[in-house]
Amino acid sequence: MTPAGRGPVAPVIRLGPVLYSLARARRLERASPERLAEEQRRLLVRLLRHARAQVPRYRALITAETADAFRGPEDLPALPTLDRIELQTRAPEELLATGFTTANTKAGTTSGSTGVPVTIHNSERDLGYLRASYLSDMLSSGLRPWDRMAYFRVQPFLRHPLERFGLLRTFHIDTSGTLDEQVEAFLAARPTFLVGFPHVIASVVEELERRGIRYRGAHTVQFGGERLTPTARARVLGHLGARGHEVYASVEVFTIARSCRRGALHLRSADVVVELEQEDGTAVLADGSREAEGEILVTRLRSEAMPLIRYRLGDRVTVGPDTCGCGVRTPIVLAVQGRSEDRLRGLDGRDFHADFLTCVVKDFREVSRMQLIQEQPGRLAVSVVLADRADAPVTGRIEAALRKAVPGFEVTVGAVDAIAPERNGKVKLVKVIRSAEPADTP
């Protein structure tokens, strides 16, 4: 963490920091678990001491004795967690390292899918690592230098100098525009590699089908940011004749996990440390020694301007041992089960996670999209978009399956033509509106 990285952020992408970070990431791609553990420990100790020495908020939270005694991931439970509320309410000056300001860093704002959008500040060195991480994700998913990449997102992005030579050309599909505008931008771009929210890409594909257009120019789709039903995913890939890859990432901590050629979602253990917080408040390291489930706490190992240690991302995940055999030797994310906030409430006032109910609905191949909505405890309304030629009585079968899963709940299932995304472009699988008191029991 030297002062060399504390200059202003460049208005264009600088290839030097990106290529340096990319080469380093690729070298660690297939490292042994022992080598990865050694690298993780080294970076974590360095990060902790940098944060304690340079960041006002961490100086207040972590004593000098704790920082001196810190030896690695096993010592993380002694440190406090960091959540969105604190990031949103603290002044940037409290969270930025010495020498960094809002003027010499680049801000990135989350989509606000939890209702608490936060802004992260990155230095030029941080951005080099970020861009290298995303480029590494795409290269591992099959990106070729001559590909035309379509990014489905709201905000545009900086250009890079290789585009003038026809390499890694990028095209922005503005997801804040109308569906017609997105389709026209997509067709004009003629992309061969797609990156974006699954539901947005699925909507474009469905509109192409409605127009009778069969687009076969894409060879890969990299999904990220939300979950898609198996039926909708198969429809997208089938229409395009493309392969599908998954990336689990966030604005705050960059890439957490990426799918391999066999489809397993491997943790990026050289870039992040992942813990899983249990219901009793204890946390276990997601080191692959055993299968574990809980709310994810992420520490981004390379973070110069605004370190995030034990950051509460808001997701519930399950992580297990590496049983893949693809050559990547890191633990596997078995399931991203949804937001930790996505809890339904029963008539007795108790909350419970809804991921097992989304799995009930997913088991019906006729379902292309879905959304579970609760406005009152003990009641559940489910909207489903049915695949082509699905029979209408399937909604009754879904309703019966859900009632069996949550006895005593009042459940209604209705077929709809579409499910509207939130303002950030994502579709919430579980939408809970806490505006009503528990319904009266019969």
Automatic annotation (TrEMBL):
<keyword id="KW-0436">Ligase</keyword>
<dbReference type="InterPro" id="IPR053158">
    <property type="entry name" value="CapK_Type1_Caps_Biosynth"/>
</dbReference>
<dbReference type="InterPro" id="IPR042099">
    <property type="entry name" value="ANL_N_sf"/>
</dbReference>
<protein>
    <submittedName>
        <fullName>Phenylacetate--CoA ligase family protein</fullName>
    </submittedName>
</protein>
<dbReference type="GO" id="GO:0016874">
    <property type="term" value="F:ligase activity"/>
</dbReference>
